[in-house]
Amino acid sequence: PLEERPLPELYSLWRLAGGDAETELRKQGCLRAKPPICTLPCIVLLEGEELGQKKDAVFFYDDTVVLLPTEQLCQRLKGMDPSLYYPLIETGQNVPPSPNSSNDLSNTAALPVIIREKDIEYQLQRVILYNRLLEAYPYQKQRIIHEAKLDIPPLYRALIWSALLDVQGDLLREYEAIDKETPTPTDRQIEVDIPRCHQYDELLSSPSAHAKFKRLLKAWVISHPHYVYWQGLDSLCAPFLHLHFNDEASAYACLSTFISRYLYDFFLQDNSQVIKEYLAVFSHLVAFHDPELTNHLDSIGFLPELYSIPWFLTMYTHVFPLHKIFHLWDTLLLGRDSFPLCVGVAILQQLRTDLLSFGFNECILLFSDMPEIDIQRCVQDSIRIFCSTPQSSTFRAHARPGSQPQDPLGMSPVALEELKAELCPRISAHDLLGVLEMSRRDSSKLNLLVVDVRPPDEYQRGTIPGALNIPPGSGEPGQWGEPLQSALQGGRMVVVAGSQKEHNTAVSAANGLVRSGQARVCLLHGGVEALRTAGLLE
């Protein structure tokens, strides 16, 4: 069955089996080392013309055919069940092998992704499956998404990312229609940035890559006249160019779609409001999951503006090498536009021990050169944070239209000044009702405490089911009495509810809880009135 596989698949598997094309070419005499001093030209004119050195014959076309040995590859795969070469894609999942089969790769699937990418038997199964699914795209898009949650094989990462971004159409015609040659005011900045972009990578540091970089970035700037070129766009382009190196049109389409989905309006001429709101939501998210860290960083004046803007503006491509970006984006492309915020929280949690012991200057030095981050742990932590955060808590007024649910009990835009005055995120009435309904169905899942901070008379006229009343003037959270102190224990999510007209009372109570170190604190958006209009108070 190997003979039926596409040549790129065979070559990829051959390399995993230990094959090295350069070694084979050297054995055949096709590659010959030459002292670097002998490759220098005798004369170089100011115009760049080189004289006095004959062109090395190694650069001439050579039609020699070199047969790569496949014995080792065949030996590694000879025990594979032939049925694995023909996976069923119409069923919910592949037919599992028998328990005694040597092809049971379930144990391999539990290993770290870096190890899985080096396992030839596992990769064979994955590339065959993805090949079938990609041939059936877009009909099998949901199955591709399902499989991508497990992992994405490097061989088909470019095509899978395109599928996840829903990139379709006559990409080449659209790309060629863009004028990429006429000089523009941004050309100079682009030319300055490109040589500094991921220059440790042999492919992206090549002259050919630099030319492609320039065309891609110019194409994006020209085709999006309402945006401008910001430094960092080159880093954002790098993963797509690396994957689609011989297909600029696809790289451009992926870049454009990615920015539209995850960085909507980040590249406006004046993006200050977009960035400030994003950072405010990020601060709330950090406080929701780790108030101790928030309190420490606030006390030393180390604010997100000082370290996280390059993270979000480049979706971490400016701070992580490409091999880590590939693994991070494999998951990021499966999530909503709020997932990058969760990645930021996960990074802080990995560095938590150092950050809690550092002062302002040490924190600045720490982030001036990003320390080593376990990217798989970061991804897993990001997923956990994303799943344990109410969707409405990451609401942004400047998000892409249609990317956030519209609901009468949902979120509405909040003034930036209000967001900055609040230390914790807001939760919509819709999300709160969802949590209450879950607890009603299964009391063992009751992990919520609602604190109603209105005066007792208003509380008596109707409140959220199960809410405890802490009227104004009750002091700091530490003075709220033993019953409530006990209720705050156990990692519950705490929702502070007040009246819409006295919202500052709720803000003060919620901020006090955060400052006291209480995790998972939220403010009820719209106050208790949001639920009264729906007739949901008791």
From TrEMBL:
Record carries keyword Transcription regulation: no
Superkingdom of this protein's organism: Eukaryota
Residue stretches in coiled coil: none
SUPFAM superfamilies, per database record: Rhodanese/Cell cycle control phosphatase (SSF52821), Ypt/Rab-GAP domain of gyp1p (SSF47923)
One Pfam family from the record: RabGAP-TBC
GO molecular function: GTPase activator activity
Span of domain Rab-GAP TBC: 151-336
InterPro entries: Rab-GAP-TBC_dom, Rab-GAP_TBC_sf, Rhodanese-like_dom, Rhodanese-like_dom_sf
Keywords associated with the record: GTPase activation
Protein transport among keywords: no
Domain Rhodanese: 447-536
PANTHER family documented for this protein: TBC DOMAIN-CONTAINING PROTEIN KINASE-LIKE PROTEIN, TBC1 DOMAIN FAMILY MEMBER GTPASE-ACTIVATING PROTEIN
Annotated protein name in UniProt: Putative tbc domain-containing protein
